[in-house]
Write a structure and sequence with these properties.
The chain has five helices and 19 strands. With about 280 residues, the chain is α+β, with helices and mostly antiparallel strands. Strands 2-1-11-10-7-8 form a six-stranded antiparallel sheet, with no helix packed on it. Strands 12-14-15-13-18-19 form a six-stranded mixed sheet. A five-stranded mixed sheet has the order 4-3-5-6-9, with no helix packed on it. A hairpin with a 2-residue loop joins strand 7 and strand 8. Helix 2 packs across helix 3. It is globular. The termini are far apart. The N terminus is likely disordered.
Length: about 280
């Protein structure tokens, strides 16, 4: 099995097809070597890598060599570009990442751990590749299941949406590798407060969600405040530099009108953005 490693993020890398409708393509490998700077992927024959599938756009995405390493960049495709199940406009790649273009999935492999290629099939994981929290798909599945079996108004079910404040400034000031380190440390810190039966997930980018079965609005807000204070007191150290950060949170509780996951996510997200408008580093419910 191909696993993540400490290979230099600048590569060289290989792209290995681990899922495709045409099983003959499984295991096919394409080099992102030192001699290349741009590799295009899409349905059109002129691309460096041609995907013969209607789910891929004519020029779906490109792999681009920059100073900090290899990036995947979406070319305004119809179905989007996904890295580790998260849709991205662009993303810095590292060994072990999964890149989905249409219905074709590539694994990014480095020279050391990518040969021999033993992984030739894709299995869906509920875990976010970077932070090791649950991913958005798993959260929505668990929320939908909880709402189907809930007998409201008891037991209560609440959701907290978190967003790191000014995260773009961290990426711009310290670099994307520092931003990744911040995300990993913050998730590790937050998960110390997660109880058995809760679901804590990376919802997307620097946004996280905490599903709290058996917890009412007041209790969820108190738990969110505990995490807010813990994050504000934490300092991330990256390559000798210290990074301080804060987090905002919005809280909502399911009621008789809450039927599916989005019915709970939307009000929690609205409260989150109210916390942002009120000055950040706070909880709103």
């Amino acid at each position: 099995m191909i696993i993540d490693c400490s290979q230099d993020p600048k590569g060289p890398f290989a792209l290995v097809i681990i899922y495709a409708r045409d099983r003959k393509l499984l295991g096919h490998q394409y080099e992102l070597g030192p001699g290349a700077t741009v590799v295009t992927v899409g349905r059109r024959a002129g691309n460096t890598i041609t995907i013969d599938s209607d789910s891929a756009s004519r020029c779906h995405a490109r792999f681009e060599k920059r100073a900090e390493g290899w990036w995947v960049v979406d070319n305004d495709s119809t179905n989007g570009t996904f890295v580790n199940d998260e849709q991205v406009p662009e993303a810095l790649l590292r060994c072990g990442d999964r890149v989905r273009l249409g219905n074709t999935i590539f694994r990014v492999c480095c020279a050391e751990c990518g040969r021999p290629i033993e992984e030739t099939r894709y299995t869906t994981s509920p875990i976010d590749g970077l932070t090791k929290a649950y991913n958005r798909r798993h959260l929505i599945e668990q929320l939908d299941a909880a709402l189907r079996r809930a007998e409201r108004p008891e037991p209560p079910l609440s959701l907290v949406m978190f967003d790191l404040d000014h995260f773009k400034r961290i990426n711009d000031s310290f670099g994307h590798l520092a931003g990744d380190q911040v995300l990993r440390e913050v998730v590790s810190l937050m998960q110390q407060h997660v109880r058995p039966g809760d679901v804590f997930a990376r919802y997307g980018g620097e946004e996280f969600a905490w599903m709290l079965p058996g917890t009412d609005l007041q209790g969820a807000a108190a738990l969110a405040e505990t995490i807010r204070a813990a994050v504000a007191a934490h300092v991330v150290t990256f390559e000798g530099q210290t990074i301080s950060l804060t987090i905002s949170a919005g809280v909502a509780q399911a009621d008789e009108t809450t039927c599916v996951a989005i019915d709970l996510i939307k009000p929690a997200d609205e409260q989150l953005y109210q916390a942002k408008r009120d000055g950040r580093n706070r909880v709103r419910s």
